[in-house]
Write a structure and sequence with these properties.
Strand content of chain B: 5-15%
Structural class of chain A: alpha/beta
Largest sheet of chain B: 6 strands, parallel
Number of strands of chain A: 8
Shape of chain B: globular
Strand order of the largest sheet of chain B: 3-4-5-6-7-8
Shape of chain A: elongated
Number of helices of chain B: 15
Helix content of chain A: 40-55%
Strand order of the largest sheet of chain A: 4-5-6-7-8
Largest sheet of chain A: 5 strands, mixed
Structural class of chain B: alpha/beta
Distance between the termini of chain B: 67 Å
Number of domains of chain B: 2
Number of strands of chain B: 10
Order of helices and strands of chain B: HEEEHEHEHEHHEHEHHHEHHHHEH
Radius of gyration of chain A: 22 Å
CATH class of the largest domain in chain B: Alpha Beta
Oligomer: heterodimer
Strand content of chain A: 5-15%
Largest interface: A-B, 56 and 59 residues
Radius of gyration of chain B: 24 Å
């Protein structure tokens, strides 16, 4: 069996699918470069990213699949996880080799894994839309630092751009070390120098605007007064707001 | 200055918390004027309180001064509590600043009745107009319709609000007469009906002329207090059913009564709120809206109350064993939806997946079916052959034996002799 080694990007994956169809080697094992352990018995093929090959495969997918499924595949790519890459690869190969609409076969493990992974990514994206708490910096930019389980920033951009059209904001992925900045016109990808002290999702007091502490306080008050102690249900509370997100939440500080 | 606003927010948020509705779904307002805010069609819950309820809107009263004396309400005239009132500017600035920080989806504005209905409604209207017109706010606004307010005011408010609601308070007229002698159901029905007719009319006009403004795009809702008066579940759900039908309501909320008064007509302070009952009512509500059940199938004269130990769908299935077992590989979608342990998502997946071959148990489990529950009611490709037919009560015992209720700490599964 051959090993296909790719770089763990969408382009790499699509190129791998192209190469497979060019050679039809039968069953192969797909691995990412950073997880790969050299092996004496298997023959390794390096996949060199090629945007033309990748876009040909992508076009084929767009022709065969509905919009919903294209969105699902996009989400699965953002999951950045080895198991999902393999399922994506097998799904693409199956899709182009069989005439049937295999994407509806939820009895197939790849289809099920992809639809479940896409759901996980969408859930993480939705949680970010809910749990991001902007803080106004001294120079009037609304900032929030996040470290989501999946690389969801590309999915968040449109939502925040539409919503906060009249204010400048930054959403920064502290784990993947990049973010997006909106300047009231368009969104740019940025990389911050994190030595400035922006290591956590909460800004230090010195960098906050004058009003910020008042609204933080008001929000914490509101959160307390809107609770009904007679109905206390901590298990439900934690199920809805898992503890790993508490670090973002102003009301939980 | 900031201390006073904190105090007001504490009083007026505390008074508003008994309103259950916090949904921000169904809004269609888009940020077309480069202002602030854009609706999210399914709504977003920005946080959850420690009692597990979602917080998506800034839910406050404009004031808790009230001329009415309804026994079930904290803001009743005769209650000795701190009173406060926001100015229009204060509500607007709180909403804008909370929204800018992504704390909330929008505003839920209600109010005690001061002076009279029109005076109160006019104040509410001033807040929403300022938000929409001066601040270019496109977030979600849920506004209470004040019963008895003039139709012109209600109609104008509907142009700026996303959702409007009026609380029915008690599920039956008799219950309402007992606790709030000054109020009647008719006072709620008249404005609900008026708004509903306006919604329909605006929609018709929009079909002909595109720039007709939106009118209450997220529809109307209402709320009933449960457990303050001795209604049966049947009466409650039939009232809900009637309101869903007559006024195309988006939601009916059921709010378990939390004792707040020493009034002898009401449960005493310290009584546990009927949380399980409330949960069962919501489950029934969901069965009616998403699972194709008619209210009379679940609650009727022979079953006026919902079971506490099992959910209403399982309870229906156990009473109607003649429809089961359902063959997963051939049955209609409608019937698969009725199997306990299969939800809407799994039912849809099953119907699509079975075109590719007969489904097996392991596939059903992976799709997300609660198999331990569903297995008593279904057949699939590799179901084991069952030598005897079990009765409904035996299946119930099996299911209860292997499941742990999150509510019932003590075993209620005692032998019934009669």
């Amino acid at each position: 069996m051959q090993i296909y080694l790719f770089d763990g990007t969408t382009e790499g994956l699509l190129t791998a699918v192209f190469e497979w169809f060019e050679r039809k080697p039968g069953k192969i094992s797909l691995q990412t470069k950073d997880k790969h352990q050299p092996d004496a018995f298997y023959d390794v093929m390096f996949i060199h990213n090629d945007s033309q090959k990748a876009s040909r495969v992508w076009k084929g997918l767009v022709q065969k699949l509905s919009k919903d499924w294209i969105r699902r595949l996009h989400c699965c790519c953002l999951a950045e996880n080895e198991e999902t890459w393999i399922a994506l690869f097998q799904f693409c190969c199956n899709l182009f080799t069989t005439p049937a609409a295999i994407q509806y076969n939820y009895g197939d493990p790849n289809v099920l894994l992809l639809s479940q992974t896409a759901k996980k990514v969408e859930r993480e994206k939705h949680r970010m839309e809910a749990f991001i708490r902007f803080q106004e910096t001294a120079d009037g930019i609304y900032y929030c630092g996040i470290d989501p389980d999946f690389n969801v920033i590309p999915l968040l951009q449109r939502h925040f751009q539409n919503r906060y059209a009249d204010q400048q904001w930054i959403i920064y992925d502290l784990k993947r070390k990049y973010g997006i900045f909106y300047n009231k016109q368009d969104v740019q990808e940025i990389q911050l120098d994190l030595k400035m002290g922006l290591r956590s999702s909460i800004l230090p007091a010195t960098q906050q605007s004058a009003q910020e502490s008042l609204y933080t306080l008001l929000w914490q008050d509101y959160f307390k007064s809107t609770n009904i102690p007679a109905r206390k249900n901590t298990a439900l509370h934690i199920r809805h707001v898992p503890k790993r997100y508490w670090k973002y939440l102003t009301e939980k500080q | 200055m900031s201390d006073r606003i904190r105090e007001k927010l504490n009083i007026l948020a505390d008074a508003a918390k008994y309103d259950v509705s916090c949904s921000s779904s169904g809004g269609t307002r888009k940020n077309t004027n480069k202002g602030l805010g854009d609706s999210h069609s399914s709504g977003i819950c920005h946080t959850y309180t420690e009692d597990g309820r979602c917080v998506s809107l800034l839910k406050i009263l404009l004031t808790n001064h009230c001329i009415f004396d309804c026994a079930y309400c904290v803001s009743r005239k005769s209650n000795d509590i701190q009173r406060a009132a926001f100015t229009v500017e204060e509500v607007v600035s709180l909403t804008m600043n909370f929204y800018r920080r992504n704390y909330i989806e929008g505003l839920f504005l209600s109010s005690g009745i001061f002076k009279n209905a029109d005076f109160t409604m006019e104040r509410l209207l001033r807040v929403v107009k300022k938000l929409r017109l001066e601040e270019r706010f496109n977030g979600y606004i849920h506004l209470k319709t004040i019963p008895g307010a003039s139709e012109e005011l209600i109609k104008e408010a509907g142009l700026y609000a996303d959702r409007m609601s009026i609380n029915l308070e008690m599920p039956t007229e008799a219950g309402l007469r007992l606790l709030a002698p000054e109020k009647t159901h008719q006072e709620v029905i008249t404005p609900l009906d008026y708004v509903q007719k306006q919604i329909v009319q605006f929609k018709e006009e929009r079909k002909l002329i595109r720039n007709v403004p939106k009118f209450v795009p997220a529809g109307q809702s209402t709320q009933m207090v449960i457990g303050a008066t001795p209604e049966t579940d049947k009466e409650i759900m039939q009232t809900a059913h009637r309101f869903y039908q007559d006024f195309s309501l988006k939601r009916v909320y059921y709010s378990g009564y939390i004792p707040i008064s020493h009034d002898q007509r009401l449960p005493v302070i310290g009584t546990q709120p009927p949380l399980i009952r409330e949960n069962r009512l919501y489950q029934t509500d969901w069965l009616m809206r998403f699972y194709g059940f008619h209210v009379n199938e679940i609650l009727n004269d022979s079953n006026p109350h919902l079971d506490i130990d099992i959910d209403p769908k399982l309870s229906w299935a156990l009473r109607n064993m003649q429809y089961f077992p359902v063959d997963i590989n051939t049955a209609a979608y409608k019937m698969i939806l009725r199997v306990p342990g299969i939800g809407v998502g799994s039912a849809k997946k099953i119907v699509q997946a079975r075109q590719f071959g007969r489904l097996r148990i392991d596939q059903l489990k992976k799709i997300g079916v609660a198999y331990n529950r569903a297995r008593h009611f279904i057949q699939c490709a590799d179901s084991p052959i069952q030598l005897r037919d079990y009765q409904g009560f035996q299946i119930k015992a099996f299911i209860l034996a292997e499941s742990q209720s999150k509510y019932l700490k003590h075993d209620l599964n005692q032998i019934k002799l009669f």
